[in-house]
Write a structure and sequence with these properties.
By secondary structure, the chain is mostly helical. The protein is about 75% helix and about 0% strand. The protein is built from two helices and no strands. The protein has helices at about 5-40, 45-60.
């Protein structure tokens, strides 16, 4: 019984997408944790907050369903 090449490619693409999704979600969590820690240490300047929020928003853009990236 032969393995369908198209089916195999689809499964590989799905796995790749899931790995990227987990990476992006972990990245957003890490950024939020960093901002929380800076706020707690009273070291969150407006510039740092702006940079972290901008990175969170740009990362979250990839997580939106149907985003054309």
């Amino acid at each position: 019984m032969r393995i369908d090449v198209g089916e195999q490619a689809l499964k590989a693409a799905e796995q790749h997408i899931q790995e990227n999704l987990r990476f992006l979600q972990a990245h957003v969590r890490s950024l939020k944790d960093r901002m929380r820690a800076l706020r707690k240490a009273n070291m969150l300047t407006p510039r740092r907050k702006y940079k972290i929020v901008a990175e969170i928003l740009s990362t979250a853009a990839y997580l939106r369903p149907g985003a054309d990236n």
